[in-house]
Amino acid sequence: MAETPRSFQGIILALQSYWASKGCAVLQPYDMEVGAGTFHPATTLRALGSKAWAAAYVQPSRRPTDGRYGENPNRLQHYYQYQVIIKPSPPDLQALYLGSLEAIGIDASLHDIRFVEDDWESPTLGAWGLGWEVWCDGMEISQFTYFQQVGGHDCHPVSGELTYGLERLAMYVLNVDHVMDMPFNDPQSPIPLTYGDVFKQTEEEYARWNFDVADTETLLQHFKDAEAECARILDEPAVDPKTGKTILMAHPAYDQAIKASHVFNLLDARGVISVTERQAYIGRVRALTKACADAFVATPAGGAT
Amino acid sequence: MPDLLIELFSEEIPARMQGKASADLQKLVTDGLVEAGLTYASAAAFATPRRLALSVEGLTAASQAVREERKGPKVGAPEQAVAGFARGAGVEVSALDVRADKKGEVYFAVIERPGRPAAEIIAEVLDKTVRTFPWPKSMRWGAGSLKWVRPLHSIICLLSDEAGAEVVPVEIDGITAGAETQGHRFLSKGAIKVTGFEDYEAKLKQAHVYLRPEERAEMIWHDATNQAFAQGLEVVADPGLLAEVAGLVEWPVVLLGKIADDFLDLPPEVLQTSMKEHQKFFSVKDKTGRIVQFVTVANTETSDGGATILAGNQKVLFARLSDAKFFWENDLRVAKAGMEPWLESLGNVTFHNKLGTQKDRIERIVALARELATVVGADADEAAEAARVAKADLSSEMVYEFPELQGLMGRYYAANAGLSDAVAAAAEEHYSPLGPSDDVPTAPVSVAVALADKLDTLTGFWAIDEKPTGSKDPFALRRAALGVIRLILENGLTVPLSRIFVENSWAPELLSFFHDRLKVYLKDQGIRHDVIDACIAMPGNDDLTLLVKRAKALQATLETDDGENLIQGFKRANNILSQAEEKDGVSYEYGADPKFAEHDAERALFTALDEADRVIKPAMEAEDFGTAMAAMAELRGPIDAFFEGVQVNAENDIVRRNRLNLLSRIRSTCLAVADLTRING
Predict the structure, then answer these.
(1) Predicted model pTM
(2) Closest CA to B94 of B81, B84, B83
(3) For residue A157, which residues of chain B lie inside 8 Å, CB to CB?
(4) Percent of chain A with pLDDT over 70
């Protein structure tokens, strides 16, 4: 067994090299604000269509409503997810997953690892799947999902998706009680840094902005703009008049859907969305992701010939 | 006689689905085998988190050959008809027999179905079972199109007899049946080859898998209670949780852990709910009933005796209970200050878009509880206060986190707000009764709020025309009506429902909805439908207690010999009278006079009716239905004697009319008690 990681980044590096060794393309985080690793086009869009795919990546994720000014031991408005997606899902995906736990120092002969029913659904992505939350000694450390539908399209073949909540998992492995106390780099480093050294101040700053300062008028306008731009992009003719090539712009359109989704989360944190409006906003974001999914499956990466 | 073993080995099956899945597997396979002409001696099915298994013993080795003869058209019938007949029977036209019949020569088809070996039938039945299995939710995986609850990995399909075991050749979407399975995910390595059910169960046990769910449940319960007992403690029984936990493990290992002292002040229900919902822990209480420890059930044995697992679980519990404690302390601050912010915020919660907010609803319930207070013997102000705060806890943080604690938290918070015990109790009890076997509150304040709550729901939804239809009852209005019925009857209350429904256009319909629910409720208590109908037809039918009292007395009377025969006499009188009234075009309602009586039996009936009327009228006024009905049943003898000895349609018209008027007295006397025309038989 590999040496047990001693820091947050040690765990990330162990997961990266493990999944690289299993043949995943190790991608980089998507360069936009998203609520979860699933929003990365490497998952959402690549789960569609017939082409085989295998990728792993860290995705910084933002959930404005979860901000606690850096005081809560494990709640953060900005955190990291580790995401693995393999299409078609291999028959030994559970075994591969358990191997990744071993790689970060969770010894199955000492711990109680369980697959507990958890059906996944994302109303904004128009997606659902079946799977489990994985428990280690009673704590949820990952989500394990077989995608059945994304953007309103049936997944054929089915992708297997693994999501690790990195902070929580690392706190458990490293035996840390408060996220801000967790060693970010190796504690033996010349300049040892904790998670708090890196993120305590930003958690405070964003919590204040998310909850009280973000301008709701501006955000509402951003939402409308993203929605309109998404539709406009998809309405363009398939053939690019300049190059004469067929270029459907599924990804640029999907960027706008991601943007709208994040703006919606910010508006939610500002408390300006009522219960009834909430459903309507979710429906609008879903309409965008669905339109992007429709476009993607008509592209070569989406399996169109 | 061969035995059959089937195992469907998959990734983890949700615990809540396992019981039904094993029953479905047994039913689908055995039904399929029997339908195809096989028989068997016994069958049993089992489930673990990763497998469904079925054992069928004493199976016939092959189905019987079947010979069937079918009669067809006459010889000489159109060619198409003959061809159609042959096609339907599955034989060639040239193979049809011609036989003599009464009407001439007729075609006969002889259909021979040869017997088939069991293996062939099993393969078909299993294929169909897997492809059509009724999982509540199923999924595809990889590049395949087969659906199962989670990816299906392997299949055992084994027929065995004295000569040995043989794999039944089946292939379902690339999975070929064999004789091998896997043991425990972590405690066993490699494939296990089996030769039959006994061998399968024994080898699984060696490989750290207990096949039988009830065995796992028993082990868990036994170990848990033993470990607790050794510490002088007791495990809180929870059969639902036990079944669920038994579905999460193949190799149960019970671990007993401590709850940190910081949390022992939390209400026990909060500890119990938090541990159960989030962690699937059992609660363990001490002699005083305080919850002080927990039981968690691991799926594996470890070299450190579970120490790491227990420490991890304890850590997770600490975090969970820290949340619960945080909610509890925040809530207590609001409660002790009088709960006003909670009541205010209920104004932001929509109850139903046509019925306003929870706050609006509470105002209606307050008014109704005050009105009902006198009827149930509660203090009006106290009932109103109880109604005002009964739903305050819906705004609390604890109930937001654990909705199942609504009401119970209300009781704690009302008590902490310094309100009376009766008001605090009503916060919890006003939701009751929720079902047909739930306890019914008896404390007057609780009863007043419980009735007001349910009646507001019912009148509200009737007013906006959202009534239950068929199997659809999204607002649980049938349950609410049954709750009202049980509250009224079991507390013996006089609540005239019409006064609550007032003059609304929907009032008669809602009352008849109540009557329908009442019939269902009384039927379970053995009271006949027609008896209830006979009583519903009487005045005062919105007073359910009175209505039921009348129905019970009537049923008791009908169960006597006199009562039963009286009905016959009444019906005979009523029929003769109705026919005569129709024929003559008049109603014989008045003026029967004993002086025109010619016959002793006739005179005796006059006397008997006078006597009955003398008893029945005051008894009815006093709601003493027993006495009234006994007096009515007394009429049986005189009525029978009258019909025996007297011809109603006499020659003499005066005598005839007098006798018809006498029959009318029978009718009016009896109808004063209940509408006997509605009684069957």
Answers:
(1) 0.78
(2) B83
(3) 142-144
(4) 98
Give the three-state DSSP class for A275: helix
pLDDT for A1 equals: 46
Say if residues A147 and A155 touch (Cβ distance below 8 Å): yes
Q: Does position B116 have pLDDT exceeding 90, yes or no?
A: yes
User: Residue B141 and residue A113: Cβ atoms within 8 Å?
Assistant: no
* Percent with pLDDT over 90 in chain A: 89
Is residue B564 classed as helix, strand or coil in its secondary structure?
helix
Contact check, Cβ <8 Å, B300/A91:
no
Token representation of residue B292:
């002080």
Amino acid at B495: V
Question: What ipTM does this complex have?
Answer: 0.94
Instruction: Report the residue from A109, A136, A160 with minimal CB separation from B312.
Output: A136
DSSP label at residue A140: E
Q: Is B306 in contact with B235 (CB distance < 8 Å)?
A: no
Chain A: residues touching B (Cβ < 8 Å) = 73-74, 88-91, 94, 108-117, 119, 129-132, 136-139, 146, 148, 155-158, 160, 172, 275
Nearest Cα neighbor of A99 from A23, A38, A6 is A23
Chain B closest-CA separation from residue A116 CA (Å):
7
Nearest alpha carbon to residue A21 among A52, A50, A60, A54: A54
pLDDT in tens, B421-455: 999 999 999 999 988 888 999 999 999 999 999 99
Three-state SS annotation for B659-678:
HHHHHHHHHHHHHCCCCHHH
Q: Which residue has the higher pLDDT, B588 or B172?
A: B172
Nearest Cα to B159, choosing from B115, B212, B129, B117?
Answer: B117
Digit-coded pLDDT (tens) for A34-79: 999 999 999 999 999 999 999 999 999 999 988 889 988 888 999 9
Q: Tell whether the model's pLDDT for residue A202 goes beyond 50.
A: yes
- Pairwise CA distance, residues B15 & B661, whole Å: 73
Segment A229-239 mean pLDDT = 97
Q: B300 CA to chain A: closest CA distance, Å? A: 6
CA angle B653, B658, B659 (to 5 degrees): 100
**Across the interface, do B12 and A117 touch by the CB < 8 Å criterion?**
yes
List CB contacts of B531: < 8 A, sequence separation 6 or more: B551, B554, B555, B558, B679
Split at pLDDT 50, 70, 90, the class of B361 is: very high
- Inter-chain CB proximity B308 and A114 less than 8 Å: no
Pairing, β A139-150 against β A120-122:
unpaired
Question: Chain B: residue nearest A118 by CA?
Answer: B14
Alpha-carbon distance of A74 to A179, in angstroms, equals 6
pLDDT of B314-343, one tens digit each?
988 988 888 888 889 989 999 999 999 999
- The secondary structure of B54-83 as a DSSP string is EEEES--SBPPPEEEEEEEEETTS-HHHHH
In a 13 Å sphere around the CA of A247, the CA atoms on its Cβ side amount to: 11
- Output the 3-class SS for B248-301: CCCCCEEEEEECCHHHCCCCHHHHHHHHHHHHCCEEEECCCCCEEEEEEEECCC
- Tell me how far apart the alpha carbons of residues A274 and B542 are, in angstroms, rounded to a whole number: 43
> What mean pLDDT is reported for chain A?
94
Could A109 and B303 be called an inter-chain contact, meaning their C-beta atoms sit closer than 8 Å?
yes
pLDDT at B323: 82
Residue partners of B646: CB distance under 8 A and separation at least 6: B599, B601, B602, B659
Residue A2: pLDDT band (50, 70, 90) is low
pLDDT for the residue B681: 67
**Nearest one of B421, B420, B424 to B409, comparing CA atoms:** B424
Asked if pLDDT for residue B204 goes beyond 80, the answer is: yes
Helix, strand, coil shares, percent, chain A, to 5: 40, 20, 35
